[in-house]
Amino acid sequence: MSQDQIFNDDDAESDLRLLDDDGADIQRLKLPAPTEKPEDDVDERIARIEFHCSVCNMHELVHYYGKEPPFGLGIRFREDSFVMRDPFQAPPPRWQSKAEYYVALGVKCATCGKPVCKDAACSFYYTQTYCLPCGSVQLKSWPVEAQSKLRKQLAASKQKEQSN
Ligand SMILES: [Zn+2]
Ligand SMILES: [Zn+2]
């Protein structure tokens, strides 16, 4: 074997090695870099849904409207709700199947469909949630127990208004 031949053989081999490395690079590019979070993970932490209480005018951007917020694992609300992730809690890691802290701010009134918050001065719950203006109209058709409960609530919210 001459020196030349050995040299050529080496060359051919290193060419092959280069091709292999290219292939590996392409594969590596397809995987997300470990330090970067996938984009939708960042996006879902931004509140985009507008919640505006029609009674007290509370205005807030929330993360979710519906019955089963994806971040409240296993949670199912009785009514479609405006839900905000707790801004003061870090989300649990993905692999941990634990519900995140969240706040259900309000729902839509069963009668007029306007959003109302959970404040006692804004909404009343009797089988469904009603805004207080609708509730005070509806209450005549309710059982006495529910009526007196709402009357108490209405009286309390009037007192609150006066003291403000
Ligand atoms: Zn309100
Ligand atoms: Zn209403």
Automatic annotation (TrEMBL):
Family: Belongs to the CDPF1 family.
InterPro entries hit by this protein: CDPF1, CDPF1_dom
Organism name: Drosophila grimshawi
Signal peptide: none
Location of the Cysteine-rich DPF motif domain: 51-150
Gene: Dgri\GH18008
Origin organism lineage: Eukaryota, Metazoa, Ecdysozoa, Arthropoda, Hexapoda
Identification of the protein by name: Cysteine-rich DPF motif domain-containing protein 1
Domain of life: Eukaryota
